[in-house]
Design brief:
There is one protein chain. This protein has 154 residues and is α/β, with parallel strands linked by helices. The protein has one domain: 2-Layer Sandwich (Transcription Regulator spoIIAA), CATH 3.30.750.24.
């Protein structure tokens, strides 16, 4: 197995080449850790030149995707073509985002990042409900036997 890491701002591109043995998954983990430590919050793992992946790759990738999610980013995959049937099933079940090419993944992930940043930076009007408040639902009804705004008890 050969790995390469290229970063461009918040985006890390990891290319996996050859057969990945069960004892080699630590190298991929190390590349992902280094990418996060260097400020990448988006990771695209390119398996287009990879010929085989061990079954242990699925929980490893799940854990790494959660690590990127925890910092407000995401991890996506590209180039899968049956190297691991369990990973293909996980993609089919939408546990991972999979793109046809690195270029498509890069464009889509950067777009999602811009949209997320724009929605987080949107100004709110004083006194207007925020999105979080709107999603929380209406206020609970008053306790039985009390008028609105009145507290029961001492």
């Amino acid at each position: 197995m050969d790995l390469s890491l290229r970063t461009d701002g918040p985006l890390a591109h990891i290319r996996v080449v050859g057969t990945v043995g069960i004892s080699e998954t630590g190298g991929l983990l190390e590349y992902l850790r280094v990418a996060r430590e260097n400020g990448s919050i988006l990771a695209v793992i390119d398996f287009s030149d990879c010929t085989q992946l061990p079954t242990t790759i699925v929980p490893i990738l799940v854990r790494e995707a959660l690590a990127f999610n925890d910092v407000g980013g995401s991890m996506s995959l590209t180039g899968l073509k049956g190297q691991n049937p369990f990973l293909m099933t996980a993609v089919a079940e939408n546990r991972f985002v999979h793109y046809r090419s690195f270029e498509e993944a890069s464009a889509q992930e950067r777009h999602k990042l811009k949209v997320s940043a724009a929605s987080n930076a949107a100004p709110t009007t004083a006194g207007a409900p925020t999105t979080a408040g709107a999603l929380a639902g209406p206020a609970p009804p008053p306790m039985p036997g009390t008028a609105p705004g009145e507290k029961k008890g001492g």
